[in-house]
Specification:
With 113 residues, this protein is of the alpha+beta class. It has helices at residues 5-25, 29-42, 57-64, 68-80, 96-104, and strands at 43-46, 49-52, 84-87, 90-93.
């Protein structure tokens, strides 16, 4: 199997993003994925403005193919790092600008949300 140059570059960006996540935030790969998923699912464009909305652990788990309990447990660590807030409605990105900067480690374009 031969991978195209753009596929190899994408893999390189993902690996680099996970390495940077470990260095900058002290996150595990699972925690980085959960943080990215909460932002992806929980940043909505409402009346022309981006707003952070609650996301259920179940929805994050379905997206990432992880058990809900794993999402809940690892989200508690993200909350101690003040990256998400855990509310009765679900997980909320604490700082959308911080999430945007973090997502750039993976070259994810927030404008495509």
């Amino acid at each position: 199997m031969h991978l195209a140059a753009d596929e190899l570059a994408t893999i390189g960006r993902l690996l680099g993003g996970f390495g940077a996540a470990r260095m900058k935030k002290g996150l595990s790969a699972d925690e980085a994925l959960i943080y990215l998923a909460v932002g992806r699912l929980g940043i909505a464009n409402i009346a022309g403005a981006r707003k952070a909305i609650p996301v259920r652990c179940q929805d994050v788990g379905e997206l990432l193919k992880m058990p809900r309990e794993t999402i809940r447990r690892k989200s508690e660590r993200l909350e101690t790092k003040e990256m998400v807030t855990i509310s009765s409605g679900g997980l909320i990105i604490s700082d959308m600008e911080d999430w945007r900067r973090f997502s750039e480690l993976f070259r994810i374009n927030i404008d495509s949300l």
